[in-house]
Prior knowledge:
- By secondary structure, the chain is mostly helical.
- The chain has helices at 4-67, 72-80, 88-96, 104-116, 122-136, 142-150, 160-173, 177-188, 195-207.
- The termini are far apart.
Amino acid sequence: MSNPDSFIEEVSEEVRRDRLYRLFRKYAWVGVLLVVGVVGGTAVNEWMKSQAIAKGQAFGDAVQGALDQDSPAARREALAAVATEGDQAALLALLLSSDPTEDKAGSMAALDGVIADGALSPVYHDLAVLRRAILAGADTPFADRRSALEGISAAGQPYRVLALEQLAYLLIEEGKGEDAIIALRALTVDQEASANLRSRVATVIITLGGTIELVEPAPSGG
Length: 222
């Protein structure tokens, strides 16, 4: 005589298998779509990466070719002809502004274009503001230069310490040497300031007749 419990278990198992099989046949297309979506998405992502790399290489090659020109005028003309996309335009404009001795008006115009483009990353915008303030000199009102630099000197800004350095130099230009020394001393102990910047401002402090305050290292534990 067969065991009733065993028989019931076998029947239940067959029912579950049958239901699973029917569910699989009914919804198998969902799984197929998921697989196709994953594979297709990966392929599209890789294609986009390869396209971005190719465009970046083409841009780099074009810029290098322009920089290899014999004269500043030829370099500017070649750079202006380079096709750009997205942030490449900002990079190109910054390159066009790197020869102010030969073409200051063109350099300033290139920087103004970067500053006016609200779609660019703050890295490019702030660098253009900093570069413009430095190039402008006395050609731009003192108050305008200070306002521009203060706008990129807040905590978290990519070129904060460089903007603070230029603001200190404006104090010197204004005849406020003591205030400039205080501002420059703050940069010598600023954690975001590079070694080159600290060395540079230390030299300026000494030139102004100030002294460098030595910072004692924190005591080690134990």
